[in-house]
Design a protein that fits this description.
2 copies of one chain form a homodimer. With about 375 residues, chain A is of the alpha/beta class. Chain A has helices at about 1-15, 15-30, 50-65, 85-90, 115, 125-135, 135-145, 185-190, 200-210, 220-230, 255-260, 265-295, 305-325, 330-350, 355-365, and strands spanning about 35-40, 70-75, 95-100, 150-155, 165, 180, 195-200, 215, 235-240, 250-255, 300-305. Chain A has a domain at about 40-155 and about 245-285: Bacterial extracellular solute-binding protein, family 7 (D-Maltodextrin-Binding Protein, domain 2). Chain A is about 55% helix and about 15% strand. A 6-stranded mixed beta sheet of chain A has the order 7-6-8-5-9-11. In chain A, β6, α8 (about 185-190) and β7 (about 195-200) form a beta-alpha-beta unit. In chain A, α3 (about 50-65) runs antiparallel to α12 (about 265-295), α8 (about 185-190) packs across α13 and α10 (about 220-230) crosses α12. Chain A is globular.
Amino acid sequence: MKRRTFLKVAGLKGAAVASAVTSVAAPAIAQSSPEIRWRLTSSFPKSLDTIFGTAQTFARYVAEATDNKFQIQTFGGGELIPGLQALDAVSNGSIEMAQTPLYFYIGKEPTFAYATGVAFGMNHRHQHSWWNFGGGAAIINEALAPMKTHAILCGNSGTQMGGWFRKEIKTVDDLKGLKFRIGGLGGHILARLGVVPQQLAGGDVYPALEKGTIDATEFVGPYDDEKLGFHKIAKHYYYPGFWEGGAMLHMVVGQEKWASLPKHYQAIVNNAAAAAGTWMLEKYDSVNPAALKRLIAGGAELKAFPQPVMEACYKATQDHLSELAAKSALFRKAKDSHDAYMKETMFYTQIAENFYDNWLLAQMRKG
Amino acid sequence: MKRRTFLKVAGLKGAAVASAVTSVAAPAIAQSSPEIRWRLTSSFPKSLDTIFGTAQTFARYVAEATDNKFQIQTFGGGELIPGLQALDAVSNGSIEMAQTPLYFYIGKEPTFAYATGVAFGMNHRHQHSWWNFGGGAAIINEALAPMKTHAILCGNSGTQMGGWFRKEIKTVDDLKGLKFRIGGLGGHILARLGVVPQQLAGGDVYPALEKGTIDATEFVGPYDDEKLGFHKIAKHYYYPGFWEGGAMLHMVVGQEKWASLPKHYQAIVNNAAAAAGTWMLEKYDSVNPAALKRLIAGGAELKAFPQPVMEACYKATQDHLSELAAKSALFRKAKDSHDAYMKETMFYTQIAENFYDNWLLAQMRKG
């Protein structure tokens, strides 16, 4: 409080007063809004201009809000650090920050599945409510604490597409032996139905699909999928990407680095992350519709997964998540919290939001 | 650049160096992050802790991000300025900022209907995409320019409930002569079907409903409605509130006051508004489900508007909006932009997001 009074006096009355307070005021100011440079590694390539663009937008918002004093330089996956090692790099202090989907790290801690999204889990809107008002952030940050990091919510893809398949999926049996590029828990769940999940980095997927090393691949949604050209090889474009209801994305930051920031820089980072997060979904909604139309015009055949396939996957999901919950108290805590919150939000959403959407969609289909 | 170098030197080397740069550095600093106090009037009472809480959250975020240098004091509707005069007060410079739904002011400019939301219009998610990526902000700010103000998006209610009715609405004929407390364009549209729309401030609604001066009232959603106790008098609780798909809320700021802010304060305000906006919907989703359950337990009878009523209202809406578009080029510009964007976003949402939501709701209903 005293410091601010000093500054005001100095600013209003000029040099004569200022000289009297210099030895206190000048160092205090330099400390209060210091020049800081951080680096941020993304798990995504720069070509994904919506996902990576979210990291760039976040960094720009932070710079603008600090009069360019706090600069965060953004790097694409692999530029400094491989995409799948982003969390480790933040954890060991090699880099200050990462934009990374936490379910990449379920090998370390299965609970991270709930940080991004689980199969048949909450949609983007309910996930964000859970994160900030339902205890989600506290549970995930408990899981991150041993890695001396914490996560700041920054964006969501919304419900994704189910991906590109060389052959039609007509029955549950068609999943048997299917070499499907899908990572994380979604892969583990589909493996219960005979799928052979493949982990491949973004750039390797197209050639693998072309050569027939894999039969199918999921990615994100029309706008991102189109860039990778999957429709030229695998024309059956399925929906929805049920292995996550919405994919929450986070900025992960090292606790020690975080503590070194002035409190108002921390506030600026939190606000910038929320603002860049809204940018992400708004941008996707602005580009996905036209991309989907171009894909269809280019030969993509749009198909919903058949009901028996959805049901078998739903059952496999419940079994798999229950097994994991039986093995880990933290996973169970996340699952119980998520499931209870989902039940509540779904109960309400069907009354107003979903009814309204469905009614209008029916009206639009009538013409 | 030079200024920042000075500060760094002063901060690192202490008083000896600082004394040499004082007369330049101190005033420059005071200017770069000045102490500013603004006042914000809301159109809502403080008792609506989610809507008014969004204004408080916004002000808190701004204060935290500026180390308390930029303080925005929040006032409930009527404390300084009546709720319906918030825009005027900002326009004439009586106050720096207002939290107000712009469709309060369709009497000045009908285009403001699209700033908040029109009947059978886009849902909250698509509205926000339109605002930032579809030209929405530019059109509404064009409409605000004669009032020397501009609007910053800050929150949304999501789809609202249809409100409380003393008697059941079974047919379109039941709307004839119905004294319904509903403001703005929604009221004008329903008047085409015989409704007698009533404009009443929040505090006057309950007694009017009790005395039978009005037959029905709409408000927001379960959490806010419960506080006002409408279910004690009018037990038929209808959904959805089709007179707006989602209600965008804005912070309206005077252009001159805005221009007087340092650029990084402007950035801080924009980020804080986006962040507080996400807070609002997340908060609503965290409290509406339980409130709805309590209302049902307290005797509320939940009902969807009958299909013929919805269809008649849809038709009346299209007629009404088309008539307004024929009279005003700016209204037509907003309508064309909104409608085209809605068509695109609805086309895509049905594929992934809506399919996923519907599938899960069906699954949950099965148990």
